Amino acid sequence: MTAKPRLLVTRQFPDAVMDRISVSYDAIVNQDDHPLSADEILSLAGKADAIMCASTERFDKALIEALPDTIKMIATYSVGYDHLDVAAAKSKGITLSNTPDVLTDATADIAFLCLLGAARQAQSSAATLRSGQWDRWTPTQFLGVHVTGKKLGILGMGRIGQAVARRAKGFDMEIHYHNRRPVAAPGLEDAIYHSDKTEFLKQCEFLSINCPLSPETKYFLNEETLRLLPEGAVVVNTARGPVIKDTALIAALKQGHIAAAGLDVFENEPHLNPDYLALDNVFVLPHIGSATTETRNLMGFVCLDNLDAFFAGKPLPSPIG
Ligand code: DGY
């Protein structure tokens, strides 16, 4: 019997995933589930042939270059891979994979929850109720932004952006999008493409961020670009926090130019800028876009499908790069 490949497992993944790992791999598991530091990864990596990590572990150039030559593959339990230095991995001959597709619907659902929750003051009104401070219905309390029939701008018309757009069709929203190139997406033939960022932003009564984080998209929404959005716009982010400059968004929310924000992600996670919490017009969640049991199991299975394919010498289902 040939020895099983050795897999460094940086987090406690769902039971169904851990069970499948134990069948095919000799696993070195981070038992207490804290995100591993670079030093911790290096101290364990010499005993492994591959790593299964999450977006909470940053494999920058320095860490990738320092990895022992035993490491042949890194499978990330995420669709986003801004935490992996793809060029460094490539030059070191390390294969990478991610988990596209399986989390599209769960994440688009949370984008819509953030959109509706922000527009309709769901968090601040519920907080009033939960704290026992709601004393009666009034005609003017908790007034939100009307959603149906409004213009929704989608930044990044990939799988998740398209799934958000399809949900928005159910609210009779007019879809505008900004992307590297126009997209031919079934059911979204009437979505309006803007190659120009300024023209795009001017249309967005609602803006949903669905692009990857990259040097080009970091701080896409900043003091200057926020001003291009129509007065009273609602901003939603379920992609990566640093696509928005938090201090600029907070200032625009305080000033009122932006009516509300729905955020599943933010800068410096898990440390939310406390100014957000002082604002009634913010609906904020702790990065739960893909957090359904079904989706988190499937994400693990996609990681393992990639690892299994790699060790069997077969093409990967979802390679990066
Ligand atoms: C993803 O899959 O990219 C999620 O944001 C979790 O990291």
Automatic annotation (TrEMBL):
Record's keyword annotation contains Cell membrane: no
Record key words, sorted: NAD, Oxidoreductase
Domain of life: Bacteria
UniProt-listed InterPro entries: D-isomer_2-hydroxyacid_DH (IPR050223), D-isomer_2_OHA_DH_cat_dom (IPR006139), D-isomer_DH_CS1 (IPR029752), D-isomer_DH_NAD-bd (IPR006140), NAD(P)-bd_dom_sf (IPR036291)
Domain D-isomer specific 2-hydroxyacid dehydrogenase catalytic residue range list: 14-320
Keyword NAD part of the UniProt annotation: yes
D-isomer specific 2-hydroxyacid dehydrogenase NAD-binding domain segment(s): 114-289
UniProt-listed Pfam families: 2-Hacid_dh, 2-Hacid_dh_C
Family, as annotated: Belongs to the D-isomer specific 2-hydroxyacid dehydrogenase family.
Name of the protein in question: D-glycerate dehydrogenase
Organism of this sequence: Sneathiella chinensis
